[in-house]
Amino acid sequence: MLDLAGTALDAVDRELLRHPAVGGVILFSRNFESPEQIADLASSIHVLREPGLLIGVDQEGGRVQRFRDGFTRLPPAGRFGRLHALDPARARAACRSIAWLMAAELRAVGVDFSFAPVLDLDRAISQVIGDRGFAAQVESVRELAVAWMDGARHGGMASVGKHFPGHGGVAADSHAELPTDARAFAEIEREDLAPFRCLIDHGLEAMMPAHVVYPSIDRRPAGFSSIWLRDILRGGLDFQGVIFSDDLNMMAAGAGGGYVERAQSAIQAGCDMLLICNNRPAAVAIVDAFGEHHDPVAQLRQLRMHGRGQVDRVSLHERPEWQRAIRYVAQLEEFETLALGLDDPTSPERAE
Predict the structure, then answer these.
(1) 280-310 burial string, b = 16+ CB within 10 Å, else e?
(2) Residue by residue, what is the 3-state secondary structure of 48-68?
(3) So which residues are the catalytic ones?
(4) What CA–CA distance (Å, rounded) separates 253 from 247?
(5) How far apart are CA 42 and CA 121, in angstroms?
(6) I want to staple 83 with a disulfide (CB 3.0 to 4.6 A). Which of 69, 91, 136, 163 is the partner?
(7) pLDDT at 344 over 90
(8) Which residues contact 205 (CB under 8 A, 6 or more apart)?
């Protein structure tokens, strides 16, 4: 899964994206000018291949939202967690509704899925996670993550749980260095793995492992570890969905060796699709190295990631689900800044 430099495909992009080893495109803020432009870009990507290439984006909300102008500014996940501490039913309803909004707005422009939700516990240790995580409490994360996944599905979108088995217990940022989490497996299993296990039981479509080393389990980062991916995730937790590597261009991924070597290590460990971003020469090298690679099981898993249904943006804004979600966004902002109540007597979810 590769990235693009600009807001439209050029001839070099088209040739690369037609390579049989390429399975998708991840979009960033630099690829975005307007909803109309991103819809044209998505269409130009999808028509290159049959079945179409997957298109993903990080549209979590809060600090991590690649498309903004013309899209609803989504709240960070931590805001749902703070509401959950006061009104769990209301928080679940808001989370479900806003996840639908996220999915529906992306589907309206042809994007297949967002790399969300974040399932890491916000232990107030990791700044790179922080309020991207729902909460520190396992039960809150489980309930809100299920609500998010349900809402995204209603909007026609699969979900990607990240960062397995949990990035919240380390301070280091894996974008810049290799974090190490020295806790025993029993503690990780009891706490950090619980949200992942819960979403797997609810049919989670995809997972992204962390570029974090857990030395009590394996000296290799989780994304390069067959113990974590094949033995624990596939074997122990019976996960049947897609395993996306985290970006192989991140500093922490250097533990896997050179770019082709780390790509091969991630595949051997159990990843189904590799992300390589912001490094076109490395992407080309990996694509060339995997020209003969063929994994029909992985390809079947990836079919679940294609978006379902699509409405035009005008019709979307007329739907009662959109209007309800916008109210929740506004009320969550009000809750965060003024600590006001969030009652919405017009919402059927209030009975939950």
Answers:
(1) bebbbbbbeebeeeeeeebeebbeebbbeee
(2) CCCCCCEEEECEEECCEECCC
(3) 175, 246
(4) 8
(5) 33
(6) 91
(7) no
(8) 158, 159, 160, 241, 242, 304, 305
Tokens of 47: 């028509």
Cα 94 to Cα 167: distance, rounded to the nearest angstrom? 25
> What does residue 207 show for φ and ψ, rounded to 5 degrees?
-140, 150
Place of tokens 């409490």: 137
Q: Where are the alpha helices (DSSP H) in the chain?
A: 11-17, 35-46, 77-84, 88-107, 138-154, 185-190, 193-201, 226, 259-269, 280-289, 296-303, 313-318, 320-338
Coil/strand/helix, residue 196: helix
What is the CATH topology of the domain spanning 54-267+304-351? TIM Barrel (3.20.20)
- Residue showing tokens 């590799």: 274
Question: pLDDT digits over 272-290, tens only?
Answer: 999 999 999 999 999 999 9
Using CA atoms, how far apart are residues 219 and 116, in angstroms rounded to an integer? Answer: 27
Question: How far, in Å, CA of 265 to CA of 225, rounded?
Answer: 8
User: Please, which residues bridge with residue 242 across strands?
Assistant: 206
Residues 6+ apart with CB under 8 A from 78: 62, 122, 130, 131, 132, 133, 134, 135
Separation of alpha carbons 173 and 157, rounded Å: 28
Across 84-88, 123-127, 154-158, 224-228, least confident range: 123-127
What is residue 174's predicted lDDT score, i.e. its pLDDT? 73
- Percent of the chain past pLDDT 70, that is, above it, reads 94
Domain residue spans of the chain: 54-267+304-351
Q: Reply yes or no on whether the pLDDT at 342 is more than 70.
A: no
Rounded CA separation 54/303 (Å): 9
For residue 220, give the H/E element and its range.
Answer: strand 218-221
pLDDT in tens, 64-102: 999 999 999 999 999 999 999 999 999 999 999 999 999
Lowest mean pLDDT among 65-69, 301-305, 338-342: 338-342
